[in-house]
Design brief:
By secondary structure, the chain is an alpha+beta fold. It has a single domain, classed as Double-stranded beta-helix (4-Layer Sandwich), CATH 3.60.130.10. Helix content is 29%, strand content 21%. The longest helix has 17 residues.
Length: 351
């Protein structure tokens, strides 16, 4: 079929984002005392942060602000940075409760691995623990490639990818001493650039690629599933992409090999992602939110100062109540393709 150029507020290039300021939203003045009151209530009742529903963390003064954030994520650029959370006032444990309270007013947190992780601590676990903790891929062979999760928990660079949920949110508690720059790219812009340069390769990205669940299959899920990299439904674009999962599938017996042209399409996608990306440095108290349907994210390598001041990001995966409908077949990864449905994340094994 003939592909059409995508247009709308959800199509942008990195060079455009650098001159726009509206994607960065300072917390309203009323937010901080309200967060303090809500957090104080959680402390007074001795509630565990992971069990706190929105009703037990009331934020009425933030309702309009968070509604604007959710609207921008789904109907705007798909990228928001909230600034101004005073992380230095709180311990890491206290920040988890506050960050959780904000998060549950935006969406429903989803599990990030097969071991029940609901809020990730993104830091250099190799330096801190000598290994990546709770890695669902198991103990790899010495020469085996790192899983996506293991790559995330080191200080190395990360290739562009999506997470398996509507919105990924990252709170910067402490930035790295050097590096650790966040890279974000708009996937509809990649689509348009590929349409202009190599429409033949663009067509291939709308075809299925085998992917591996990398040990995170549960309750009868197959180890391998297939999805296109790009897809459309009802005029809405979506992309689900991690080259690591495609490469992992290719190493498994019985998995159909992708063609040289399909591999070339992934090469061009990676090249265009670097070309069109926007880079941002995290500051303490920044909260980055990305719609995985229209953005990829990655990062540069980094170096920490010392263990007491290591780079630490807290991560939530959020299923959004205003999410888009997904194309048929995406149930294999998302569980459901209905708009606004509870979906995404890693399924947990049922005992």
């Amino acid at each position: 079929m003939a592909r059409q150029k995508l247009s709308g507020p959800w199509v942008w290039q990195g060079k455009d984002l650098g001159s726009a300021a509206d994607w960065a939203k300072p917390l309203p003045k009323a937010a901080l005392p309200e967060l303090e009151r809500a957090f104080g209530g959680v402390q007074a009742r001795g509630l565990a942060w992971a069990e706190v529903p929105p009703a037990d963390f009331p934020l009425p003064a933030l309702e309009e602000f968070l509604g604007e954030v959710a609207d921008e994520l789904e109907h705007g650029r798909g990228l928001v940075k909230i600034t101004g959370l005073p992380v230095d006032r709180y311990s890491d444990a206290e920040l988890k409760a506050i960050y959780w309270g904000l998060g549950v007013h935006l969406g429903v947190p989803r599990f990030q691995n097969a071991y029940g992780e609901i809020m990730g601590e993104i830091r250099d676990e190799i330096r801190r623990y000598g290994q990546v903790t709770g890695d669902s891929s198991g103990q790899p062979k010495p020469d085996a490639p790192l899983s996506s999760r293991a790559r995330t928990r080191t200080n190395g660079p990360l290739r562009f990818h999506t997470d398996r949920v509507d919105v990924v949110s990252l709170l910067c508690v402490r930035p790295a001493k050097q590096g650790g720059i966040s890279k974000v790219v708009n996937t509809p812009a990649i689509h348009n650039a590929m349409l202009e340069r190599r429409p033949d390769l663009l067509d291939l990205l709308f075809q299925d690629y085998p992917r591996s669940r990398q040990g995170e299959e549960a309750n009868g899920e197959s180890q391998i599933y297939t999805l296109p990299v790009f897809a459309m439904r009802d005029g809405k674009f979506t992309s689900q992409y991690s080259r690591t999962f495609v490469e992992a599938a290719q190493r498994l017996p019985g998995v159909p090999k992708i063609t040289p042209a399909q591999d070339e399409a992934l090469d061009l996608l990676a090249e265009l992602a670097e070309e069109l990306a926007f880079q941002m440095a995290f500051e303490p108290g920044d909260i980055q939110l990305l719609n995985n349907h229209v953005t990829y994210h990655g990062r540069t390598a980094y170096a920490d100062a010392d263990m007491a001041h290591d780079r630490l990001l807290l991560r939530l995966w959020l299923s959004m109540p205003n999410s888009r409908a997904l194309p048929a077949g995406f149930e294999a990864l998302w569980g459901t393709i209905q708009p606004g449905a509870l979906r995404g994340g890693i399924r947990q094994a049922v005992a």
